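pipeline/complex-builder :: batch 7 item 3
reading input block
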Amino acid sequence: MKIDSRIESQVSQDFSLRKVAGLLEHYTPPPVAGFAAAGNWKQEYSMFLLDPMVSINSGAFSIERSLKGTQHFAMTVQMRTYGISGFSLFQHAVLQCRTDMLAAPVSWEFETKMARRPGDKPYLLSGRHRSAKVSDGYLMIRDKLRTSKTMIHGPYSNEWTLLEAVQRLPGQAMKKIHYTLIDEYDTPQPDHNLEFRTRAKISVANGPLHLVGYYDLGRAVIPTVYWVDQHGRLIFVCTGLVVYALAATNGQSGICPERYPAYRA
Amino acid sequence: MSADRIASDRPDVPASKSASESQLSRRNFLKSGAALGGLSILGTSQLAAAIGEAQASSGEKKPNILIIISDQLNIDAIGHYSSYFKDPAYGGHWAKTPHLDRLAREGTSFIESHSADPVCSPSRSCMFTGRMSIETGVVEINIGIDKNVPNMGQWFEAHSNYNRVYCGKWHIGGHWNYPTVSGPRKIPGFDTMPVNGPAFGIHADPQVSNSAAAFIANYREERPYLLVASLMNPHDICYWAMNLDGHETTPATDVNDLGSKLPILPPNFTFDFKYPEGLNPYTAFHGDTQWGNYTYDYYRMVEDIDAHVGRIMDALRERNDDTVVIFIADHGEELGRHHLIEKWHPYEASVKVPFILWNPKRIKANTMNTTHLVSNVDMMPTLCDYAGIAPPPHQRGLNLRPLIEQGSTDPATWRDNVYAEWQITGRMIRTKKYKYAMKYKYSGNLDKPYVRKTDGGHTEFIQGHGDEYAEYPNALLFDIENDPWELKDLINAPGSAAIIEEHRRILRAWEAILIPGHHFDRN
């Protein structure tokens, strides 16, 4: 199934937009709802896996930012990815972060479990709660019995706090940042580079979006483009077989389908 | 800026010196691995028998068993092996794998390690039964194990008190990948950690590693566990090449300016011999850059599963329990070698798999075994021995304990060859120096895949009757010792006739003992 020529011209601006081409006809971003990147807000995202024929919803997550003075903020992450037999992986984390360019987390608590519902007990010993902090050049992760230490040098971020950070980047004016990305909540992946990629204008159901794209290359990650709209909101994340699409801002929803057709040449 | 993980209060384990494996004494070529494989698994080594019997009689607590599987992982993609895979085209020069490197440093690895049938379902059926795919009936993907051939979970359930949990991709029950917690798609013999659904590693692997790590961290029962953490990546690379009708736009067409990060093409990207039947060059990628992007993305997936392995192993190290860990893959990925992608070929990239065994209390550390031929069917008899139970009958693998235990010396005898199947009717014999691969003609009928020479009729494989079935031309013979990239096919070279004859004799010896089975799909 081909998409129409209007969308065809939009997605030709950057390869990563092909991954959301089939979504654009049916997608309405949420109302801005007073969003300010440097303030307090909550964003909710739908997650998609890109099958060659159709993109399928694989879960959802929310990131919530609460200022703690001028130098720090707290981020709460809730995520659910679908498993099998009615189960999902639930992850919940609260990170204390600096308001620097990469939203570097200073300390955090995180927990995961497989369960049918968020409030259920973990299935088959799958629940785990840990805490972590970065101090004196080490990432320290504490479980019930032990603390492990991993060296971590230079600028760093976390895959979830990076979603906050890209919303405050200065666009084309930014210099490339070389940094370490903490994968999930516990595994540093060095040798990442984040930089401005391009601008793009696309049309969605309720009008145009003027997007700024940032590009991340690095260890353990398929090349990733983060698309931020004219209001400073992260609208899409496009990487390999995965898309995140903004579904709600500060409790106000847009329109985001559960599935959409894959882009076909 | 590499990360070094420090377990703050893990007991120091003295590192063994790097072992230089002794050469086997020369043996009669006809005393083949087939003959060894047909014996009871303990019959190959008095040491193994003594260990098993001592454990069983002493009531000694058996170790936990953790099997971590990666799907489609090349052995040369593990950085620790760069000292062996020196050519800059090998993966260890392009991927960073600190957690797998540590596992290999702390354990014993096999370099001459082979998949018994290098594609998902058949290989996994071999790993979890100790039988060849023609015997499990799983000769291609998306079909299930013969109901008369027990899987590891069933066998451990019947013969031990192990707590058995399966977490991740299974893919040997029928046309489905991940097991449910009940019903026909639950794996017999295992409880299921209910991860995933769609077959995407990027989605499933975080579920697998977090759940498996939590299970290990939380386990409090007295009885030992058998836990399988089956990661799917780097198998996601298959989606890069999906070409259903030519209009799909996959990540292979993503445009990335990678500069010096773009991996180089392998030396055998072009070569000068004919493919065997069923293989064709992959021509959908346009230009070296697209091949390079494909390879770049593959190595990022390798780095991702390295992180998942690290998560699981960190949880294990924090416990300091007695646990035997096996890290293994079901098959490799061609990455443009021989101008191919993916797997199910007899070439090295497809058929060689990583195989690491770890237990600081029992298994030699810092040992890279480059001389002994092993197969992923060896996993079953080895783990049965650790569990103190006899393996199922008709095991085709060998118990690896005589090669890996601390304080052990190499057994007097070991297999001289490894046998594998491929693309339903293909066969591979790997001896120390050579690899021979051939293919019987495929009838097109999965249940009667062989074609009789006499009348062209279709038939199942009858034990020992290989001589009666038609074969394709274009068999392959490589001197692996001197030609690891398999650039020069010796099948028609002067002096090869005797070598081919010997390898075919070994093939016939294998076929004489194999008991063909029938797939059973649990849908």
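note: The radius of gyration of chain A is 18 Å.
queue -> next item
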